[in-house]
Structure formats: C-alpha cells, structure tokens
Design a protein that fits this description.
Layout: E1 2-11, E2 20-27, H1 37-45, H2 49-63, H3 74-95, E3 98-99, E4 121-122, H4 146-161, H5 167-178, H6 180-196, H7 205-218
Antiparallel strand pairs: 1-2, 3-4
Protein name: Selenoprotein O
Pfam families: SelO
GO molecular function: ATP binding; metal ion binding; nucleotidyltransferase activity
C-alpha cells in the first residue's frame, strides 16, 4: 500500500544533487519473512554465535518444515535448500528480463523470495548490461551479473554458517555451493526451452538459446 502525506519533503531522486520538494509517502511492503542473508551475516561477524544458532533454528522451524529440528545436519540441509532455491529464483528473474537493482546480502531473502527491489526494472530488449538503478555507476548489479552475484551472496551465507558446522559439514557445504552454477544453468535452460517450445533433449538446444540471445542483442 502507499500512503501519501500532505507534507512536502526534500528529495534527491537521482542522487545527482538536483534536490526538489515532493509529497512525502510511506510504502507498506509485505512478505512471508524479512529474514535475509545479512540477518545471519551480521551475527556471525560480531561473534554472537548463540544468537545466530537461536535465530537460525527459529527460521528453520518456521519456514523450512521439511528439515527436522533434531537433525544434526539441519544447517547443512538449510544451506542446500537456500542454494538451490536461490538459483531457481534468479533463473526466473532472467527468464522474464527482471533486474533486481540492488543485489547485496541484505536484500537476498533466506526464503528465496524477491524482496527489497527498490530500483528494479524490466528490460525492453535484451541487454546484459541493463541497470535499472541510476546510482549503480559501476554496473555492479547489472542484469548480466545477477547469477554470479547470487553465488557471491551464497558464499557469504556459508561464511556466516561455518562457525556452526563441523569440518565434514563445511566440506560438504563447499561442494553444495560449487553446484550452484550447474543448478542455475540447468533451470535457466529449462525455462528458455519452455519459452521456445522445445521438447525433449537435443545437444543443440543450448546453442540455439545462446544464438537467439545474441541475435536479440544485435537487434
């Protein structure tokens, strides 16, 4: 919902020094959960491991019912789920040309849902350098970087979880993270094949998808 005030506020809309008055407003956004990678990252960074464990157990109990709370590998299962679901989410973004705009760890949901997409946008035509965020001068979060930024954020999640994992679990978690790229590529291919109406498996499918994207870029 959007509630508009009668009071004026000063805004620098494009962060370019051109300040002007406009009506103030409050935006209400809803989500199943606002826990994000940064919620765990900040606790691990400050060494609050008891609170980190309590929060993580709460998140698993509330939002990951398939993971048993008495399972000694529950944090590993949690990480595996977040990795695969994040790959799925970004694949869906890319399949419709959606650019999140600010893909840092504090804007990546642990439930792998789309949150905090303030300066978002959809591509009018295919352009891997498309950036909807006018303050992102370095194009850090351009649409072509979203998949790799997702992997970077997941590596930060693993770093936050490591104090709660034993040596074997750390090794397995690293292997899970390495599988992110393959999962993303597989899901993206599946989505693009559905768009093109390609049935079954053909070794030339991926070539055709890449070719058509290149043609779109040239157009």
């Amino acid at each position: 919902s959007l509630v508009v005030s009668d009071d004026d506020v000063w805004r620098d809309q494009f962060y370019n020094g051109n300040i002007k008055k406009e009506r103030g407003a409050v935006v209400l956004r809803l989500a199943k959960s606002w826990f994000r990678i940064g919620s765990l990252e900040i606790l691990a960074h400050s060494g609050e491991l008891d609170l980190l464990r309590r929060l993580l157990d709460f998140i698993i109990q509330e939002h990951f019912p398939s993971i048993a709370m008495n399972d000694s590998n529950r944090y590993l299962e949690f990480f595996s789920t977040v990795v695969s679901e994040t790959a799925n989410l970004i694949s869906l973004w890319m399949s419709v040309g959606f650019a999140h705009g600010v893909c840092n760890t504090d804007n990546f949901s642990l439930l792998s849902i789309t949150i905090d997409y303030g300066p978002f946008g959809f591509m009018d035509s295919y352009d891997p350098n498309f950036v909807p965020n006018t303050s992102d001068d370095e194009r850090r979060y351009k649409i072509g970087n979203q998949a790799s930024v997702g992997q970077f954020n997941l590596s930060k999640l693993l770093q936050a979880l490591k104090p709660l994992l034993d040596p074997r679990q750390k090794q397995l978690a690293s292997q899970i993270l390495k599988g992110y790229g393959e999962h993303y590529y597989s899901r993206s291919t599946e989505l693009f094949k559905a768009k093109l109406g390609l049935l079954g498996e053909n070794e030339n499918d991926n070539y055709l998808i890449a070719f058509l994207l290149k043609v779109s870029l040239l157009c």
